[in-house]
Amino acid sequence: MGDYWSLRFRAPMSERGLEVATRLSSPPWPCWADLGEEFAGYAAMPKAIFIPKGGLSYAPRDWEQACEVVDGRWRVCCSIKIGSPEVGVFLDEVLPRLLADQVTVEWWDETTGTTEIWVVCPSGPRQRVGTWKEAGGG
After folding, report:
1. Residue 29: pLDDT over 70
2. Which of 13, 46, 70, 95 is a Cys-bridge partner for 18, taking CB atoms 3.0 to 4.6 Å apart?
3. How many angstroms separate the CA atoms of 44 and 93, rounded?
């Protein structure tokens, strides 16, 4: 047991992004280090593979485990232990390199029951939009 964050997004991918997402979505599943030198820093982090492959833990019931490419978009829904710096590095340094356009990322916190909404762009760092509650959601 433990406290988890969960991430969910459906991202429009660049050509390079589709290559990476397709490899991560299909067996044999590579580790990030196998995908290119540009991911070396992230690959060295102990829990890097949990995004996108971390089992969905304690997430809202309507969230379903996912790591697949559908119609040029990478659909990911995964969990990682709270406090893992991999989340910030993934959203700020890895995902922007793979995107064709901006994506909205949902970041759920098991301990607070809050889903934060972030926008990630190909040009760089994520921006917090708010929470589902602030946006009039659940």
Report:
1. yes
2. 13
3. 14
| 67, part of any domain | yes
H-type alpha helices, the chain: 15-25, 40-43, 50-53, 86-89, 95-98
Closest to 98 (Cα-Cα) out of 8, 35, 15: 15
Instruction: Work out how many domains the chain is built from and give that number.
Output: 1
Q: Model confidence at 7, in pLDDT bands (50, 70, 90)?
A: very high
Which one-letter amino acid corresponds to residue 126? R
Q: For the segment 102-134, what is each residue's pLDDT rounded down to a tens digit?
A: 999 999 999 999 999 999 999 978 999 998 666
Q: Are 99 and 17 in contact (CB under 8 A)?
A: yes
Residue 38 φ then ψ, to 5°: -65, -15
Give the structural domain span for 55.
Answer: 4-131
Query: Does residue 137 form part of some domain?
Result: no
